[in-house]
Amino acid sequence: MTKLPPRGIFHMIGNAHIDPVWLWNWQEGFQEIKATYRSALDRLREHPDFVFTCSSAAHLSWIADNEPEMFEEIRVRVEEGRWALVGGWWVQADCALPSGEGFVRQGLYGQRFFQAHFGRTADTGYNPDSFGHAGTLPQILLKSGLKHYTFMRPGPHEQALPSRLFWWQGPDGSRVLTFRIPYEYCTWGKDLEPHVRKCTTELGGPVNELMCFYGVGNHGGGPTNENLASIARMNAEGGLPELRLSDPSQYFRAVQELEVPVWADELHHHAVGCYAVHSGVKRWNRSAELALIRAEKLAVLAAAVTGLPYPRADLERAWKRVLFNQFHDILAGTSIESAYEDARNEYGEALATAQHITNAAVQRLSWRVTVPHREGSKPYVIFNPHPWATQIPIEHETGGVPAEFSVTDEQGTSIPVQRVRSEATVTGWRKRLTWMAELPPFGYRTYTILPEAAPETPTVEASDLHLDNGLLRLEIDSQTGGISRLLDHRSGADVFQGPAAMGTVMRDPSDTWSHGVFRYDDVVGHFSDAHSTLLEQGPVRSTIRTTAQFGRSTLTQEFTLYADQPYVQVRVQVAWHGAQQVLKLLFPTHLHFPQVTYEAPYGVTGRPTDGNEEPGHRWVDLTGVYRPSGAIRGLSLINDAKYSYHALENQLGLTVLRSPISAHHDPYVPTEGGNYRLMDQGEQVFTYWLYPHDLTWRDADTPRWAAALTERPVVIPETFHEGPLDPAASFLQIEPANAQITVVKRAEDDHGYVLRVVETHGQPTQAVLNLPFLERTLHVQLGAYELKTILIPDGGGPALTLNLTELETWGEAEDAPH
């Protein structure tokens, strides 16, 4: 029989997609990783031409610690090029919800593990099963040493692309050569011919080489002898593409020079329900990321100023706990219920570590601050984690404060202060106080409670149904417990067109992922029968609490206006007892021709206002033409715990929760009346700000306002003592406003300080970094949305630009003496 000629080339990618957590706990995933890697090593011994593709440094770390003999076998196979390292991340993370710095740390710890143990790093990003991919990832991938990218979701039915192979371009202009896997990343049958024939339908055009993935997956397994035998048989028979045992890096080298199209957008919307489902893991993730970033900053300051040892090992261990739980089936909310007990504990470990490091740093610093003695007074040192001046409300519990008291700053200036409800239900000895602190850039200031009457200060105007601070007037809808009117006194503009912030409930019969769903718009009711009461009124703030009902669920919102602050703060408490429904808060505006912008990982994303459910981070902004006046105005919605939004014409929507059946995956059809566990039952709390503004979010500095809400100052009660530090000081500052320093840490190799700088507005700029604590000033040129990592070496050498893994130096940063 004559062998037919090949019809192109398929790079056969032998892999074993392993979910360390999904419908099982991590302990079972641990065992399955060992079993799968043992199988892969056996196949490598039996088949001299077989190549195995492996990602996820966390999995290999488990093997290194638990089975060092097996790890040595793997190391030998990596050295000979038959165990292909891909991914470069700690795990195959969710690719929409981690912060920009979360993605950076995936590559930092993943690539450094590969380098330390195998003498090489990965060059191909690899997330076959993740449910969508942020449009800002190309820059992070490229600067982590990952020049190529492989994914599968969204599929062609969810996101049309110009080609299987394309250049994926980020907003900053970074490009990575990217491949979308056809049909599936794992195979279940022994004979691969049906899968291979299906993939041949993808051949054509300029790209005649494709990757074809095979191997048992999800719960591990990997390629089988039967798989490999069928590949050999098909090659012998001919008539199909050449089936080449290969790996992703070999494939990308083969197609590197082809002319393929460019895709300059994100890759969504597979499984939009994952942006909101399981509120707990979403909140734990954001809290832990930000707590560790703040802990690093303050630990650096304490090390540089006081010599306190930098807790590198503790921080690395805590970050790895967070990174593991960013795995796509954990952070997405799709794992079994008991898996979230493990996730809660691991995020808790990271949060506790950050708390201990933060406390050690600020206690060390504040003990060296000069605090003058004043009889009967109580001093506080308050630390600002941001490299710009902030005005932020402080709340703190204290004891022994007399009936009449005041607060002054370190210069003796009296500050409006207000007593608010204590967390302790005891006698009057324990009190909770709030005041507005004006803090210097990345520094601290000393405030003192004095046993003397405070000067008279006007209160924020309030009643049971309205608040007014002279900048904004808020009126409550007595029926829904939401907002009937928000008037911006500065422009005379009414922010909302109709009731806002009312709890709206949508029907949601979809599975945990919301497979096949793109929006939630089947309204079944609203929270109503509200009760509204004036909770507090004073010179710092006034607050109205509203409570509304829907079925057996309760929605409580505490609306607060602070004196002289241009936002409404809303603290939300939900007691939810609904089934297969979505709870949203809706904000219909007066804007015409609106544009919606979402915070993305180290960047922003603009999308249509078509009502689709969208992932976002701490803020979303709607800007357009204010209908009555024709002026450009906008509304930024900022929150500390949620990731899911929509924009429909002139309306913003914040998705508070979903309550599908836990770990329910189509096509399983639940039994009507069956006893299933439902998600997001019970109580949860979060905070959002409504920030109306003139012009655009850029002009309003929305990224800095979002940082102010979510990265809070640290308050330390002190005593009287002399010290080498002044009562107020600043240690780091950056200008202009469209540049942010997001990270300050010790270098991984402990040879200097690392700063992460990002341009936030899409406007190229020269950032000026003033670093008094290192006696340096840096001038850093940033392109639009550019992310730079700067190393300031110990000993005073020139500042250097690094890649994100800190394994490569890309030249000197512009530098000037202090």
TrEMBL record:
<dbReference type="InterPro" id="IPR041147">
    <property type="entry name" value="GH38_C"/>
</dbReference>
<comment type="similarity">
    <text>Belongs to the glycosyl hydrolase 38 family.</text>
</comment>
<dbReference type="InterPro" id="IPR013780">
    <property type="entry name" value="Glyco_hydro_b"/>
</dbReference>
<dbReference type="InterPro" id="IPR011682">
    <property type="entry name" value="Glyco_hydro_38_C"/>
</dbReference>
<dbReference type="Pfam" id="PF17677">
    <property type="entry name" value="Glyco_hydro38C2"/>
</dbReference>
<dbReference type="InterPro" id="IPR027291">
    <property type="entry name" value="Glyco_hydro_38_N_sf"/>
</dbReference>
<protein>
    <submittedName>
        <fullName>Alpha-mannosidase</fullName>
    </submittedName>
</protein>
<dbReference type="InterPro" id="IPR037094">
    <property type="entry name" value="Glyco_hydro_38_cen_sf"/>
</dbReference>
<dbReference type="InterPro" id="IPR011013">
    <property type="entry name" value="Gal_mutarotase_sf_dom"/>
</dbReference>
<keyword id="KW-0326">Glycosidase</keyword>
<dbReference type="Pfam" id="PF09261">
    <property type="entry name" value="Alpha-mann_mid"/>
</dbReference>
<feature type="domain" description="Glycoside hydrolase family 38 central">
    <location>
        <begin position="268"/>
        <end position="347"/>
    </location>
</feature>
<dbReference type="InterPro" id="IPR028995">
    <property type="entry name" value="Glyco_hydro_57/38_cen_sf"/>
</dbReference>
<keyword id="KW-0378">Hydrolase</keyword>
<dbReference type="InterPro" id="IPR011330">
    <property type="entry name" value="Glyco_hydro/deAcase_b/a-brl"/>
</dbReference>
<dbReference type="InterPro" id="IPR000602">
    <property type="entry name" value="Glyco_hydro_38_N"/>
</dbReference>
<keyword id="KW-0479">Metal-binding</keyword>
<dbReference type="Pfam" id="PF07748">
    <property type="entry name" value="Glyco_hydro_38C"/>
</dbReference>
<dbReference type="Pfam" id="PF01074">
    <property type="entry name" value="Glyco_hydro_38N"/>
</dbReference>
<dbReference type="InterPro" id="IPR015341">
    <property type="entry name" value="Glyco_hydro_38_cen"/>
</dbReference>
